[in-house]
Design a protein that fits this description.
Helix content: 55-70%
Structural class: mainly alpha
Radius of gyration: 29 Å
Largest sheet: 2 strands, antiparallel
Distance between the termini: 34 Å
Shape: elongated
Length: 446
């Protein structure tokens, strides 16, 4: 794994020995399709667990709009100014009590579409951009390059997902007529996701679906830059400085840390965006705010600067676990897929060496395998055969766990590890068999 990467790791294949990979002479690797696909899949799965916190966050951020609209006379007395939810946990409790599971999971479908379309670019493009702006041969990349790559990816992702983000916010704010006492913000009363998209499109066209996209891109420019830079730097530090294993625990700690930093950076923009998204529109114009800047002015005037951190706890409860789960799932999916490819590589090379097809490699087949791995070069015949015999016996001594003088497929991974050691030792001793005369080289010990 590159020090700058946000990708999960796979099993290490060590030295690449072409003879062990009969298909293409090298291990199977995750291609662009798999990387982009998993970048979209992991956060789409994570949102199943974190959407309730997002629903509570939207309600908390919008209830300030009740006081705001009352203060500026836009509600015409239809919306009371008292607060419905005291805090994040009170919001979750009341939504569950009054609206049930369906209420707390409102907007789940557009949330899944939003996370998939957003992170296809936000996560999927990070490593490709890093390879363009930084040469790994020069060492670890500086924080500003990681911030730049993350910010560019965030802008692309925000633009791609804006229609789903808009619809999600409006669905999460809506309540049924019997729960009107808990209504916050403007109530659009959409039937479902497709009804919301259709009505928004009929009313305002494509422009309506991309309303607030500038605010979303600004939020993601800041948030993704902080998130992906923090995640990659934290992961690099724990692996290289603290010798942590690249596994789900590492992904969880790095992901949660990046969530804290992202939440602090994004919350002010998130409040403004939520208010702007959820205001009513007449003839394509907002009745409360004419622009994002206008929304900022109104919030400061009516509620003060602390309003920009409304819903911070719930925001963190949503994006902290969300980033944590996203990177855990991302690493898990990629490692599992890489392991599947590794298995296919082992299967193909085992079948190549198992000449009689009986499911085990006997001494003769092991010797032939070592001849394929280690070229004869300018070795003398007797010395080369002695070296092959020693290598064969060494493999049996280390990998033949059931002591039947053969290697089964279950023992084959252990064999390939020993083959890599032998290959590396011989390569180092002879500088790839070209720097030292073979007869001065010691044979392998058993």
């Amino acid at each position: 794994m590159s020090a700058d990467s946000v990708m999960g790791g796979g099993p290490s294949t060590g030295i690449v020995i072409p003879a062990l990979y009969p298909q293409k002479g090298q291990p199977r690797k995750l291609g662009a399709a798999e990387r982009f696909g998993l970048s979209a899949l992991a956060p789409a799965v994570a949102v199943f667990f974190t959407n309730p916190f997002d629903t509570a966050k939207v309600r908390l951020q919008l209830q300030g709009q009740r006081s705001n609209t009352s203060a500026i006379g836009a509600s015409k007395g239809k919306i009371a100014s008292e607060l419905v939810y005291k805090n994040s946990f009170d919001a979750i409790y009341k939504i569950l009590k009054n609206e049930g599971i369906r209420g707390i999971q409102k907007g789940l479908f557009p949330a899944i579409l939003k996370e998939g379309s957003k992170n296809f670019f936000r996560i999927g493009m990070y490593d490709p951009i890093m390879t363009v702006i930084h040469d790994p041969a020069t060492g670890s990349s500086p924080p500003w390059k990681r911030m730049l790559a993350g910010s560019l990816c965030g802008v692309m992702g925000a633009f791609a997902c804006n229609p789903f983000e808009l619809i999600k916010t409006r669905l999460q704010s809506s309540v049924s007529p019997q729960n009107v006492q808990n209504a916050v913000g403007h109530q659009f009363q959409y039937k479902n996701t497709w009804d919301a998209i259709a009505k928004t499109y009929r009313g305002d066209g494509v422009k309506g679906l991309y309303r607030g996209s500038v605010l979303s891109m600004a939020r993601s420019f800041v948030g993704s830059g902080v998130n992906l830079a923090t995640y990659s730097m934290m992961k690099e530090y724990l692996i290289l400085k603290k010798n942590w294993k690249d596994d789900w625990v590492l992904d969880m700690i790095a992901g949660m840390t990046s969530g804290v930093m992202s939440c602090a950076a994004m919350n002010p923009i998130d409040v403004v965006r939520t208010r702007y998204y959820n205001q009513p529109y007449v003839d394509g114009k907002g009745t409360l705010y004419s622009s994002g800047g206008d929304a900022i002015k109104h919030i400061v005037k009516v509620e003060g600067l602390p309003a920009f951190y409304k819903g911070f706890t719930t925001h963190f409860l949503r994006i902290g676990p969300h980033f944590c789960l996203t990177f855990v799932f991302l690493g898990m999916f990629r490692r599992q897929l890489a392991e599947a490819y590794h298995y296919l590589d082992m299967r193909d090379s085992f079948k190549k060496f198992d000449q009689d097809g009986n499911g085990v490699l006997d001494r003769k087949e092991l010797a032939e395998a070592m001849r394929a791995v280690i070229p004869k070069s300018n070795f003398e015949d007797a010395e080369y055969e002695k070296m092959i015999l020693d290598a064969t016996m060494r493999i049996l001594a280390s990998a033949d766990t059931n002591h039947d003088s053969s290697i089964s497929f279950e023992e084959y991974p252990k064999m390939t590890e020993e083959v890599q050691k032998i290959y590396a030792e011989r390569a180092n001793a002879s500088q790839l068999f070209g720097g030292i005369r073979p007869r001065t080289m010691k044979s392998f010990g058993v």
